[in-house]
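Batch manifest, entry 17 of 40.
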Amino acid sequence: MDTPKHILEQALKMTPADRFVIIEGLLNSLDEPDKTIDEIWAIEAEKRLEAYKQGNLKTLSCEEVFGLDSV
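Output type: structure tokens
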């Protein structure tokens, strides 16, 4: 079995186009959806929306967020 170091050494000998294909494939493999994380964020979003509706969440205007009120 090849080690990560050996695979990297082999990849560095490839053409830039071939290296790009490998890099793109690796990056895409890290960006796969995770249902558990999506569910956690959906629950959090609902909690935040409910807190906002009940007036329990401090809000900022876009001017405050982007510092536009001091311009």
